[in-house]
């Protein structure tokens, strides 16, 4: 039987057009599971003007990357799906788009802000810890991280386009401990998920 966690990257690449259609170009607002507009506004408010932002697991670049570019930020997106990155490069040419695995990528530079939106939780718990180390290595000495944490610790399998879609969470306390060890503290003004961490 295919490992559903190991299948995620291939699934998104094979179904790239379906994902682009299903995700759409509009940010989710109030009434969605997470208010993306409010989360991005909080994130951007914590960044310097014209900040350099890394979007890990950026997918097609829509709608999160597009919204960051519209807000005047310098955006680099990394995703393991070549087809999704190709779409981002074609439709959002002012961004920088790189094919890379969040567990192994190394850009050799740091960023003022790091966005990890609905991507980390597709990895199994061990790989999440590896990926977080890689991701946080790309955070500047003073930086902001916006992370969707995936809820309570555990594993769940959803369904998308007829296939199992893997999700896992280490739990909020574990994420805070990992970020805390890297010098980040939760933004006390951000009382609702997703949480923002500041260094």
From TrEMBL:
GO terms for biological process: methylation. Its EC number is 2.1.1.-. It is an enzyme of class 2 (transferase). Transmembrane segments: none annotated. Keywords: Methyltransferase, Transferase. The keyword Transferase applies. It comes from the Bacteria. One of its GO terms (molecular function) is methyltransferase activity. The keyword Chloroplast does not apply. This is Class I SAM-dependent methyltransferase. It comes from Brevundimonas aurifodinae.
């Amino acid at each position: 039987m295919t490992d559903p966690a190991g299948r995620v990257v291939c699934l998104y690449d094979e179904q790239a057009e379906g994902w682009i259609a299903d995700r759409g170009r509009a940010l989710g607002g109030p009434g969605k599971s997470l208010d993306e507009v409010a989360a991005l506004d909080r994130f951007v408010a914590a960044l310097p003007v014209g900040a350099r932002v890394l979007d890990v697991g950026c997918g097609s670049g829509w709608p999160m990357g597009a919204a960051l570019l519209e807000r005047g930020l310098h955006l680099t997106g990394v995703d393991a799906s070549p087809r999704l990155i190709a779409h981002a490069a074609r439709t959002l040419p002012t961004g920088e788009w790189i094919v890379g695995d969040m567990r192994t990528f190394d850009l050799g530079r740091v960023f003022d802000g790091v966005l990890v939106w609905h991507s980390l939780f597709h990895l199994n718990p061990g790989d999440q810890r590896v990926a977080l180390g890689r991701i946080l290595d790309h955070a500047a000495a003073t930086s902001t991280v916006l992370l969707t944490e995936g809820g309570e610790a555990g594993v769940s399998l959803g369904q998308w386009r007829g296939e199992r879609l893997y999700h896992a969470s280490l739990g909020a306390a574990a994420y805070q401990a990992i970020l805390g060890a890297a010098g980040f503290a939760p933004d006390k003004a951000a009382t609702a998920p997703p949480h923002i961490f500041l260094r």
